[in-house]
Amino acid sequence: MKKFSLLKGLLLVLSLFTASQKLHAVQFARLSLAEAKARAAQLQRPLLIHFAANWCLPCQWMDQNTFADPEVSTYLSQQYLAVKIDVDEVQGYADKEACGVKYLPSLLIFNASGIVVSRYEETLDAAQMLEVLRKYDTPANRIAPRTAYAVPVVKLNTSNTTITQIGQHEVATISAEVDDDPAHLDAQRRPVTSSSLTPAMPTSRKMGVQVGVYSSYENVIRQVQYFEKKFYKTVHISAQTNNGQTYYHLIAGPFETPAQMQTYLSALQKDGLKGLIVTL
Questions:
Q1: Which one, of 29, 17, 274, lies nearest residue 165 by Cα?
Q2: In sequence order, what are the beta bridge partners of 52?
Q3: How many whole angstroms separate alpha carbon 147 and alpha carbon 141?
């Protein structure tokens, strides 16, 4: 009888311990890659993405140990946006391919501008995880895209801003009244004299292609997914606020050479789309 009571007591302690672990475990958000980047930019936090699968034993070990650690959980919830992506899901597999993930578990850390600052393709214990989190929890990695992407040619004010493009692509102006519909945005463009064309891309700065400006956060997520899947290039989000309204500029890039950027612009053009050259 005493042995039975002792066994019941041990089982009770074990169940309470397990429940406590689950209570303090990291609460991962279930977002796509594009959604996670947009949310991290909105929160102005670095982003941790944990690529995993149900059949991955090392992933399970990290869930039960590393991410069940109260200190790790607290730090992540307060300082990061933590997202888990299941690579067995259709969207998860696409995100895995987009990030070049080949091993599980894989942990990718992005800054608030949506740029990968580090990746770990290994199992980390709680102490190692904390060291990594503290290392990349820096002011620079919290800079929102509107600061990280200094795009001086795109200014949301009451006057039109001229944006110069390269080669034979149309030079355009965009007014402050942007819309969620790219076709509406394109309608605002007007040609200018060829003398204002930039003959070559500056070699000292990275360049990107702005593919749209939106005021709807939900539409931003859909468009980022569309452009990344369709044209196989990472799209970053540059958020800018004007008179209390946030506008999201979607920028593909960076491009290492003018040739790469011209190829991207040509691909857009074949689909009836237009891009604007911007400095990153």
A1: 274
A2: 86
A3: 11
pLDDT by residue (tens digit) across 232-244? 888 888 777 777 7
SS3 67: coil
Domains, the chain: 2-143 (3.40.30.10), 148-279 (3.30.70.1070)
Residue range 159-207, pLDDT digits in tens = 333 333 333 333 233 333 334 343 333 333 333 333 333 334 444 567 8
Q: Which two tokens stand for residue 37?
A: 């980047």
| Model pLDDT for residues 209-219, shown as the tens digit of each residue | 998 888 777 77
Question: Among 15, 32, 105, which residue's Cα sits nearest to residue 67?
Answer: 105
C-beta of residue 117 within 8 angstroms of C-beta of residue 136:
yes
Q: How far apart are CA 103 and CA 120, in angstroms?
A: 10
Low-confidence ranges of the chain (pLDDT < 50): 11, 13-14, 16-21, 147-203
* Helix (H), strand (E) at residue 108: strand 106-110
212 phi/psi in degrees, rounded to 5: 175, 160
Q: Using alpha carbons, select from 151, 127, 140, 133 the residue that is nearest to residue 66.
A: 127
Helix axes 126-136, 70-79, angle to 10 degrees: 20
